[in-house]
Amino acid sequence: MEPFLTGVVAGLKATSPLEAVAVVFGLAYSVFAILRTRWCWVAAFVSSVILIYLSWISRLPMQASLQAYYVAMAIYGYWHWSRDDGKATQAVTTWPLVNHGVAWAAILIVSLLSSHFLAAYTNAAWPFLDSLTTWGSLVATWLMAQVKLENWLYWIVLDSISVVLFAAQGLMFVALLFAVYLVVSAIGFAAWFRNWRAPVQQN
User: Residue 35 carries which DSSP code?
Assistant: First the structure.
């Protein structure tokens, strides 16, 4: 436990002001998403724009590309959540089980392909799991924008893997951040599930 706490303290000390702003807006995105307010996408936009820059100067082009995707999805998500006469929320819906089967099959296939490339041409420590969390995040973000209940289940799986990944690499502060995201995802699922069940209970 002491090495973990030491790593967290060291991570906090090493955090730049710009990185701290990105983290704060990232957490704000998660909280606002639970409340289903379109302002979550504004927070996501700010966080992702900062992370594009930080990833690029840190020579992490794949992460920079992923953050660029998040910026595009933030714009789309804000537009999609604002279409209903300017309201900030949309009704929570679900995705057919077959769609999830196809989505996860695609995620696994693309992850295997990209992990093979990473293992062959880079010094990636965890090529498959790194690929899995990246491609899975693309789908999870799209499901979030579509106000699909299951997006939180995707994030629970992906955040759990990310905690292990970053902790294994000694990045304890980042691992702690994803642990917080994991808790937020569980809360988000419970909140959205109640909203999804509400119309059924009223009938």
Answer: T
